[in-house]
Write a structure and sequence with these properties.
By secondary structure, this protein is of the alpha+beta class. The protein has a domain of 123 residues: Gcn5-related N-acetyltransferase (GNAT) (Aminopeptidase). The chain has 4 helices and 8 strands, in the order E-H-H-E-E-E-E-H-E-H-E-E. It has an 8-stranded mixed beta sheet with strand order 1-2-3-5-6-8-7-4. Strand 7 and strand 8 form a beta hairpin. The longest helix is centred in the middle third of the chain and has 16 residues. The N and C termini lie close together (10 Å).
């Protein structure tokens, strides 16, 4: 499959928001949040296209000895880390169709290397809607594990999207080498 990696553009906003809300409902990213990324020319995102159609996107932070935005907990680290804030594809962890997910994750790992990061992190809700126990056609945890990510189920972060909500998450971590490359 041929994929193209780029950044979020104004023309992508509606499609990306609809795709994310399809999978995550009211927790999906809003068009206003996406518009802000475009207007502020933030480069903390990747868009994956195939035949000029958006098939995946991700928003990330580069952490330098700090916790990710909106999370609390204990996750010791040194140096720069790429923290994936949002990761959505057209197939979204579907067990028998992970090519798009894998291509987007490899693009993120490549960007992390270019940014001088030593690890990539992704926090997934302990009761993630796309873990195999909740939906047998999907396997979010298994996807990250199959790509070399490790988690400590005794240590987790909590995502706090607002003052009244705290969602416990497993932290999936992968060490990356600055010298390996996975060009798409």
């Amino acid at each position: 499959m041929n994929f193209t990696v780029g950044h979020l553009l104004k023309k992508h906003i509606q499609h990306v928001s609809v795709m994310d809300k399809k999978w995550f409902g009211d927790k999906g990213i809003s068009q206003n949040e996406l518009q802000s990324l475009v207007e502020n020319n933030l480069q903390n995102n990747l868009v994956l296209t195939q035949s000029k159609t958006v098939v995946g996107f991700s928003i990330f932070e580069i952490l330098d000895n700090k916790m990710p935005k909106g999370y609390v907990g204990h996750a010791p680290h040194q140096g720069k880390i790429m923290f994936i804030q949002q990761f959505t594809t057209a197939t979204n962890y579907e067990k028998n169709n992970i090519d798009t997910d894998k291509a987007l994750l490899l693009a993120l790992e490549e960007r992390a290397k270019e940014s001088g990061c030593s690890e990539v992190w992704e926090a997934l809700a302990i009761n993630h809607p796309y873990k195999k126990e909740n939906n047998s056609n999907f396997d979010a945890f298994g996807f990250y594990e199959s790509q070399g990510y490790k988690t400590d189920e005794n240590r987790y972060l909590s995502w706090q999207p607002n003052a009244n909500t705290s969602i416990p998450c497993f932290l999936f971590r992968k060490k990356i080498s600055q010298y390996e490359s996975h060009k798409l």
